[in-house]
Amino acid sequence: MSLAASIISSTLNAGTPLLIAAAGIVIHEKSGVLNLGIEGIMLMGAVCAFGTTLATGSFALGFLAGIGIGLLLGLTFAFFTIGMYANQYAAGLALALFGTGLSAFIGKPLQGAALPTRAPLGIPGLEDIPFVGEALFSQHILVYGALVLMALVWWFLFKTRAGLVLRSVGEAPKSAYALGYPVRKIRVAAVLFGSVCAGLAGAYLSLVYTPLWVEGMTAGRGWIALALVTFATWRPLRVVVGAYLFGGVTMLQFAFQGMGIGIPPQFMAMTPYLATILVLVLISRNPVWIRLNVPASLGKTFTPQS
């Protein structure tokens, strides 16, 4: 029972950064913007959050630093792709490479450093419930915040007028512009939201999930989040399932190693990525369904004169 509770708890913890990043990706891709730089933003969020917390002793300031660098990189991406009409694919890849390299440079003196003592986690009263408390209520507040965030994304997209406008911008920006909607401003806002989420996800990795700084510590989670949203056909519920699937398989590899099961560590390290992709491919095996759900203008530059 204790092992099962530990695996459930660890699954929620491991799936949270993916869920936070994916929530932002759903929003900016629904607006028609494809940002392939999520991995770089997450790494920059992680290193800035870790360095800030190490310098100030404040985890709150660390999370704010992660959010702030995400906002700054999002503004940079929006300036080039929406303001200067640069190719979204090229700009996103450049941002991913830039974030990976700069985070390694900034974080070099931070490797091996230890964070200050963190306040106890969990929900008081509920975390003491046998099994359920350990499995579900012993988490950092962002674990629950990520679920609330994804629920709010679903509500915003499908239950509000603003969400309908955002989706219309992603589907037919020329028509939305003709109706008087500020397409470029809406896309900028969506990109900034997605970048802030990526920065926050990176901060969670270095302040809660590990907590430490190691070069390249996201280990491809930014790319997995992008694939997760696509294969989940931009449906928030499917994204939640995919994020926790990745987290669950990640934790199972450690459980198997702890039980002495003789599986090569290299195979176990690739298992979470392989399992997530295989399951999501099975979920979205109908290509017609993907074509019906993909935003029609995703990755396409919009100019008011076009």
Question: Brief description of this entry?
Answer:
With 306 residues, the protein is an all-alpha fold. The chain has helices at residues 2-30, 38-56, 59-83, 88-107, 132-136, 141-159, 161-171, 173-178, 183-209, 221-231, 236-258, 265-283, 287-293. It is 72% helix and 0% strand.
Write down the domain tally. 1
Q: What is the SS-derived class?
A: mainly alpha
Count of individual beta strands: 0
CATH names the topology as: ABC transporter involved in vitamin B12 uptake, BtuC
Assign the CATH class: Mainly Alpha
Count of helix runs: 13
Point out poorly predicted stretches. Answer: none
Proper CATH architecture:
Orthogonal Bundle
Task: Give the key terms.
cell membrane; mainly alpha; ABC_transp_permease; 306 residues; 13 helices; ABC transporter involved in vitamin B12 uptake, BtuC
Report on the architecture of this protein.
By secondary structure, this protein is mainly alpha-helical. It is built from 13 helices and no strands. It has one domain (2-293): Orthogonal Bundle (ABC transporter involved in vitamin B12 uptake, BtuC), CATH 1.10.3470. The protein has helices at 2-30, 38-56, 59-83, 88-107, 132-136, 141-159, 161-171, 173-178, 183-209, 221-231, 236-258, 265-283, 287-293. Helix 1 crosses helix 10, helix 1 (2-30) runs antiparallel to helix 11 and helix 3 (59-83) packs antiparallel against helix 9 (183-209). The radius of gyration is 20 Å and the shape is globular. It starts with a helix and ends in a 13-residue tail after the last helix. The mean pLDDT is 88.
